[in-house]
Amino acid sequence: MKTTEIFKMKRVLSFEIFPPKRTGPVQTIYNTVDELKALKPDFISVTYGAGGNKNNTKTLTIASDIKKNYHIESVAHLPSISLTKEEVLELLESFKVAGIENILALRGDSSPNITPNNDFHYASDLITFIKDNGDFNIIGACYPEGHIQSPTIVEDILHLKKKVDAGADQLITQLFFDNDYFYTFRERSMIAGIKVPIQAGIMPVVNKKQIERMVTLCGASLPRKFLSIMNRYEHNPEAMRDAGVAYAVDQIVDLIAEGVEGIHLYTMNNPYIANKIHKAVHSLFVE
Ligand code: FAD
């Protein structure tokens, strides 16, 4: 099923997972999916390392198994920064054969181990290409605080509108810790004429280093309340985990009260955390 169809029926709850590292056994992810399945997510998305091996088939295999063996809708991430048009065509063909209907189409980021290819400059170029070469449901990324490379949030939203006009059927946000950014972004997107569902991406903090790394990469603001939690509990993993879960639950409750169309939980492959959050908020997804 195309995930956009789910929004017509209910408020969406989805999970993001990432494939195990190249050296790690692939089975570990299936132990995680076994536990996530019990929470009945509307879909699970599987990331794709833009810097990874081009023949990296883990995302494809895991997304296909989630759909075929676990009977949960899946989304395959696809960053195009280092890919040629021919390589994307091959991947699209493999997605079709594997029964994958949903693609999170991304530009990806350059880094020392990534050689950018100029076939796709922006995610909107990839989205146009996918639309021309298959019948996929396409999801795009969006940034409540503005993308880190964008000079202003207004320019970023104008670029986002181009991405939606190119064919993005749905959007998922970057993580954020202050819901007010989301509400302002949602309003500005509406004014810009963006009408597709926008799902809020929520990442529970379970470890100070992990959040600091993420924040360096994406530039998310850390509210005072959030910083106090990180500073007070950084040496007490259990308390940090509980406080991180409580903070994420608080964000989700507020977002749902304000009518968000869906929550995308960055699980960090941690079913314990997903389970705790699900227990606290699952009734809010039933209208
Ligand atoms: P774009 O939409 O292309 O935007 C990138 C920048 O270019 C923005 O500043 C934008 O304003 C600007 N821009 C866009 N169009 C134009 C234009 N026409 N002219 C001038 N400027 C323009 N990365 C991975 O490698 N693998 C993953 O699995 C992955 N999953 C992600 C999931 C989510 C939900 C999110 C939010 C991000 C994910 N990322 C992933 C990270 C993503 O690749 C980076 O955030 C990347 O920097 C931007 O990708 P994008 O698709 O949003 O790019």
Automatic annotation (TrEMBL):
GO terms (molecular function) for this protein are:
FAD binding; methylenetetrahydrofolate reductase (NADH) activity
Q: Which InterPro entries match?
A: FAD-linked_oxidoreductase-like, Mehydrof_redctse-like, MTHF_reductase_bac
- What UniProt keywords are attached to this protein's entry? Amino-acid biosynthesis, FAD, Flavoprotein, Methionine biosynthesis, NAD, Oxidoreductase
Q: Which organism is it from?
A: Natronobacillus azotifigens
The entry assigns this protein to a family as follows:
Belongs to the methylenetetrahydrofolate reductase family.
Q: In which pathway does it act?
A: Amino-acid biosynthesis; L-methionine biosynthesis via de novo pathway; One-carbon metabolism; tetrahydrofolate interconversion
What domain of life is recorded for the organism? Bacteria
The keyword Oxidoreductase is assigned to this record: yes
* Cofactor (UniProt): FAD
What name has this protein been given in UniProt?
A: Methylenetetrahydrofolate reductase
Gene Ontology terms: biological process: methionine biosynthetic process; tetrahydrofolate interconversion
Flavoprotein among keywords: yes
Q: Name one Pfam family in it.
A: MTHFR
Kindly list the residue ranges recorded as spanning the membrane.
Answer: none
